[in-house]
Structures are given as structure tokens and as C-alpha cells.
Specification:
341 residues, alpha/beta, Rossmann fold, 7 strands, 9% strand
Length: 341
């Protein structure tokens, strides 16, 4: 059996199978409308090469006049919020100049990427109504399209309108818990202000749904900040619900350490994948799960095993790449329903 290239090479075959089962659990939760999503900068970085928080910190330090080596050292030592705070104090124009610089660095153009297309397909298939993000950029909204999604403003009236909209149509609200490029929560002063009202929405999702965090490093300040705020409550109330952290980890020793670290924190399951690999695997599992029922019906009608039916359908999918396995299975099921007495 060929090894799945989406998973790191340091994982054993049994570990890959176990993680695939976990992603199947996520797919089942999504189809049952029980999935919560928090998307980080790793998504935007993989999709369009937008800078991570560490990259933004380096760029701001360089704007302050530090050479690249020094800027990297400052970014590693102090982080984005401290450097952004200093930038706002030193640079002429202060806050507006900081906002303009961040906005310029997070501007996108050109065609969408495969990562964006996969996210759009997942959201469309599962009717995910809320996506939370610590990103300032609007790439999630761009990926989903204006008709399907919108940035939710941080006001009570906007939340009320959003709740009304999702009752009338399939729609996804994108909640930027650290602000957008027009008003980012980025400096130390910003972070000391009262939390966004979106944190209550996020906390509810974390406590009531299977929750997946994609595009973060396990050292990411954004994600540790979220967990610190709800850690005790989460530990007491998670019960059978699962939280997953999807993070690209290149070295086996770091994965083993991080895996244990997150297991100890509310039994979080670490999946060592980038956003692109995860969304591709997630989408494939969605199609596989969605094909189970029609494949079972087909196998009864043609007196063949489900495994044989699945293999035949896969060969048909190879000839028609625009159709996924669940699409092909449904077409075959309907065809047989008409043709079979």
C-alpha cells in the first residue's frame, strides 16, 4: 500500500492510519453540522505567501532601521506585539502608519490557490456557518466568495443580523477575533484592552462542538492566548468532544514533545500537517464518508462487495476528475435505481 504523502515521513504506518481515523471523525462531525473552525496565519501563508506573525515582526523591525539579522533576533526575542508597540511610538504618523504598513503587507492579488478551493468546498459541503480567525487579512472571505460569506463586524447588531441571515440561507460569517487590516489588535496596548465580543462566540463553539484549529504553530501566541482564557472551563466541560490542533512540524522530536504537551492540555489531539495538506485530506475523507451509503446500496443491487464497488467508482473518478467519489457514487446509485427493476 502506497504511503500517503500528506503526512510526515517520520510517522509510522499505524500512526498515519490513526490520524486518518481522526480526520474521518472530523469529517463526520462536519457533515453533522457539529464542527467549529479556527484558522490561523499558516492558511494565508500556504495559500498566497502572506507573512506569518514572525515575518510581520521582522518587517516592522527592519522599517525601524534594524538590519535583517538584528530584526530577526528582535522578532524571536520580543514577538510581534512588542515590536508593533515600539513601531507605533517611533514612526511618524504612529497608529495609522502601523495600520497602513500591515495592510500593505497583507494585500493579495491574482487567482485563488488549491488550499482556498479546498476550504471553499469543505464549507459548501458541510454548511459551516461560523469560521473564527486570528488573521487580519480577508483571504478566507476571498476564498469563500462574497455571496457565501462576510466579515462580521464587532457589534451586537451585526451579530443579531448574522444570526438572522444563517436561518434564511447557507451563509458563513468570518469572525476576526484580533481585528482586521483596518483595525488590527496587534500592539501590547491593543492586547491589554477588553477582549473582543467574539471571544464569547468562540468559547461557545469550543465547548459545544468538535473543534479544529488550523494554521498555527504550537508555540503561536495567538492560540496559547485563546487557550489560557478558557483553559479551566474547557478542562471541566469537554467530556466526549474533541479539540484538534493542525500544525506543520518537520522534526520528529518536536512532534513527540508537542503531541504530549497538547494531550496534557485538555486532551488536544495534534495533527502534524500544514493547512493545505490537512484540507486536502479532510475533503477526501468527506467524499469517502459521503459515499458510504450509496455504495452500500449499489453493492446490494449488483451483488458485489462494497470494497469492489468503491474500487470501480474510483476508476471512474480517475476518468472524470471533476467528480469526487461521493458524487460518482450518487450518480451510479440513481442510475441503478432507474435501470434496476
Amino acid at each position: 500500500m502506497a504511503r500517503n504523502p500528506r503526512f510526515p515521513l517520520y510517522l509510522g504506518d499505524d500512526e498515519v492510519v490513526s490520524l486518518q481515523r481522526r480526520i474521518t471523525e472530523i469529517a463526520l462531525a462536519a457533515l453533522a453540522r457539529q464542527l467549529g473552525l479556527l484558522i490561523g496565519a499558516g492558511f494565508s501563508f500556504e495559500a498566497r505567501g502572506l507573512p506569518l506573525g514572525s515575518h510581520l515582526a521582522v518587517a516592522l523591525a527592519e522599517d525601524l532601521g534594524y538590519p535583517e539579522i538584528s530584526a530577526r533576533r528582535l522578532a524571536d526575542t520580543y514577538g510581534l506585539s512588542v515590536i508593533a508597540e515600539q513601531y507605533g511610538r517611533v514612526v511618524t504618523g504612529k497608529r495609522q502608519q502601523l495600520v497602513d504598513t500591515v495592510s500593505r503587507m497583507l494585500t493579495t492579488s491574482g487567482d485563488g490557490s488549491q488550499v482556498e478551493n479546498d476550504l471553499k468546498a469543505i464549507v459548501s459541503n458541510c454548511d459551516i456557518s461560523r469560521i473564527f480567525t486570528t488573521n487580519y487579512d480577508s483571504l478566507i472571505e476571498t476564498a469563500l466568495g462574497d455571496q457565501r460569506s462576510a466579515t462580521i463586524a464587532e457589534t451586537a447588531s451585526a451579530l443579531t443580523k448574522f444570526e438572522h441571515d444563517i436561518r434564511r440561507k447557507e451563509f458563513t460569517g468570518v469572525f476576526h477575533i484580533h481585528g482586521t487590516t483596518t483595525n488590527p489588535v496587534i500592539t501590547e496596548t491593543d492586547l491589554q484592552k477588553p477582549r473582543s465580543i467574539f471571544f464569547e462566540e468562540l468559547r461557545h463553539e469550543l465547548l459545544s462542538r468538535v473543534f479544529v484549529m488550523v494554521g498555527y504553530s504550537f508555540r503561536d501566541e495567538s492560540i496559547t492566548d485563546v487557550f489560557e482564557s478558557i483553559y479551566e472551563l474547557l478542562k471541566k466541560t469537554r467530556e466526549e468532544r474533541k479539540t484538534f490542533l493542525v500544525s506543520p512540524i518537520e522534526e520528529e522530536f518536536e512532534y513527540r514533545f508537542a503531541k504530549q504537551y497538547w494531550e496534557d492540555r485538555c486532551d488536544v489531539c495534534l495533527i502534524p500537517m500544514g493547512a493545505g495538506a490537512f484540507f486536502a485530506e479532510f475533503l477526501e475523507q468527506l467524499h469517502t464518508v459521503g459515499s458510504v451509503k450509496p455504495i452500500d446500496e449499489i453493492s446490494v443491487k449488483i451483488r458485489s462487495s462494497p470494497a469492489d464497488v468503491k474500487e470501480r467508482l474510483k476508476r471512474l473518478c480517475d476518468d472524470v476528475p471533476d467528480l469526487a467519489l461521493d458524487d460518482m457514487a450518487e450518480i451510479a446509485r440513481r442510475f441503478l435505481a432507474v435501470r434496476t427493476p
